Amino acid sequence: MSSESLQPAPAICRRTLLAALGAAGATAALTACGGSDDSPSSSSGSSESSSSAGAGGGEALAKTSEIPEGGGKVFADQGVVVTQPTAGEFKAYSTVCPHQKQRVNSVDNGVITCPAHGSQFSVTDGGVKKGPATSGLTEEKVMVDGDSIMLM
């Protein structure tokens, strides 16, 4: 027998777990731990379109009519910014700026902007348009279900 203590591991709150795992791994971890269905889920990947209800089980973010063509909208609570580079094409990116992990907060004239140090990113591909960031925003997976944009 070992002299190690057999004490149960301390409970981890949901916020701590999400912070530790990051957005990409959070859904799987929360599902495995019995997390609620109202938590945002995301993973890296390109945007998809679908017309079947419940095809991905994602969270409805907005109606397609709410996202301006050539622009976008920031969803701070879900940690994503959704863009419509061209008519009917929807993309999503993490709101975390790769420069110093601050959050982007606006989309104007085809540019997603981080207020911390002025980095700017393209609504088309999330790539850097102006530094100090040296890498683009992380793409998130969304799909269109009818007139709803769903976060996967």
CATH architecture of the largest domain: 3-layer Sandwich
Structural class: alpha+beta
The CATH H-level homologous superfamily of the largest domain? Rieske [2Fe-2S] iron-sulphur domain
Estimated helix fraction: 10-25%
Describe this structure in words.
The chain has one helix spanning 14-32; strands at 48-50, 59-63, 72-75, 80-83, 91-94, 106-108, 111-113, 120-122, 128-130, 139-140, 142-145, 148-151. Mean pLDDT is 73; it is low at 9-56. The strands form three sheets. It has a four-stranded mixed beta sheet, with no helix packed on it. The N and C termini lie far apart (47 Å). It has two domains: 10-39, no CATH class; 44-151, Rieske [2Fe-2S] iron-sulphur domain (Rieske Iron-sulfur Protein, 3-layer Sandwich), CATH 2.102.10.10. The chain has 152 residues and is an alpha+beta fold. Helices cover 12% and strands 28% of the residues. It has one helix and twelve strands.
Question: Descriptors for this entry?
Answer:
152 residues; alpha+beta; Rieske Iron-sulfur Protein; four-stranded mixed β-sheet; four-stranded antiparallel β-sheet; 12 strands; 12% helix; 28% strand; globular
